[in-house]
Amino acid sequence: MSQISVLGAGAFGTALAISLARSGRNITLWARSSEAADAMQVTRENERRLPGKAFPESITATADLRMACEAPVLLLTVPMQQLAEFCATNKTLIQHKTLVCCCKGVDLKSERGPLAVLEDTLPEADIAILSGPSFAVDIADGLPTALTLAGRHQDTVDRLQALLTTNNIRLYSSLDPLGVEFGGALKNVIAIACGLAIGAGLGESARAALMTRGFAEMQRLALRLGADPATLSGLSGFGDLVLTCTSKKSRNYSHGLKIGSDVAIDPAVTVEGVATAQAVTHLSQGLGIDMPITTAVTQILNGQISISEAAEVLLARPLKRE
Ligand SMILES: NC(=O)C1=CN([C@@H]2O[C@H](COP(=O)(O)OP(=O)(O)OC[C@H]3O[C@@H](n4cnc5c(N)ncnc54)[C@H](O)[C@@H]3O)[C@@H](O)[C@H]2O)C=CC1
Ligand SMILES: O=C(CO)COP(=O)(O)O
Question: Are 142 and 162 found together in one domain?
């Protein structure tokens, strides 16, 4: 039996599996398609989602979820908008496990993050959130990074910090899972905003302003939701914001960049910030929290305003103290 199973064989799940396996853990990597699982077992790579990154021997790829869920610790790496349904459908298999959620987003239907989704569906599970600056391809290449592992209980967090730290991933712990998950989710929306701005030729000063004021609105919402805004100054928040707002490796940033420069987008690519922008715009309006950049991203993505109109609206807002 594996120590850890990774549920969801996308780019990130595969990269985490590789890093953990290289650091001596036995890993089961679960894919929902048996063709995909069989191909990974034979070729020892995930040709579709993370090509060219060889699997260590200690990874077993399978489509047998029952077998994968024999491991005591399960990493959830399905996209955010699939998380609630995945957990509800497979409740009996995962409800008594330690679950580490690795997805970054806000559920469009409930307008809540992964913690609330998991706690509602699986009240008996031990839940943690893993987030921070980490491109799948970098992790799989063995490049170093640092992430935050957060949970409500010190003992869970301590145990997982030791178990999931690898040769190239240094884990910091936190007891503010809400702050950590919202840092990871909200930065995706700001990354789209930055991509839109750069794509439309608004310049790097505009990007820096969007990152800074975007960070302010991320903290505002997190505070209102009960998180510690200081958590967002850490790896999952500031750290991930810097990474995704400045790199073409980010799918969220690239999505904005393509729209801003009129390049066709690939609908098969996971861009978490699109649904999260919609969810957070609606959520923040209901809560009376001012999130002008997130709102502008939603309006641009919905075709309600152009990028130049959004820039005019943002510049014309009433003047205020920083
Ligand atoms: N790719 C990256 O560099 C990073 C991604 N993440 C987060 O990880 C999450 C997953 O992203 P990626 O792995 O990159 O996405 P991906 O697009 O590479 O893969 C998503 C995978 O989920 C599977 N899937 C979709 N719906 C499913 C369902 N209902 N049941 C089972 N499997 C399902 C797909 O078949 C696919 O293999 C996202 O929330 C993302 O924000 C976090 C850090 C880095
Ligand atoms: O979250 C990520 C890096 O930390 C990956 O960002 P993208 O989903 O925008 O590619």
Answer: yes
Q: Which residues line ligand 1 (CB under 6 A)?
A: 8-13, 32, 49, 77-80, 82, 86, 102-105, 134-136, 270, 272
CA distance 220 to 217: 5
248 is catalytic: no
Domain tally for the chain? 2
CB 191 within 8 A of CB 241: yes
286 annotated as belonging to a binding site for a ligand: no
Distance 79 CA to ligand 1 centre (A): 4
What is the 192 CA–ligand 2 centroid distance (Å)?
11
Residue 198 domain boundaries: 187-316
Classify the complex by whether its ipTM is higher than 0.95, answering yes or no. Answer: yes
Q: Which residue stretches of 52-129 are H helix?
A: 65-68, 80-89, 91-94, 114-121
pLDDT tens string 212-237 = 999 999 999 999 999 999 999 999 99
CB 27, CB 4: distance < 8 Å: yes
Q: Tell me, rounded to whole angstroms, the distance of Cα 17 from its chain centroid.
A: 16
Among 103, 252, 271, 297, the mutation site with the greatest number of ligand 2 atoms within 8 A of its Cβ is 252
- Is 0.80 surpassed by the pTM of this model? yes
Taking only the tens place, the pLDDT of each residue in 160-200 is: 999 999 999 999 999 999 999 999 999 999 999 999 999 99
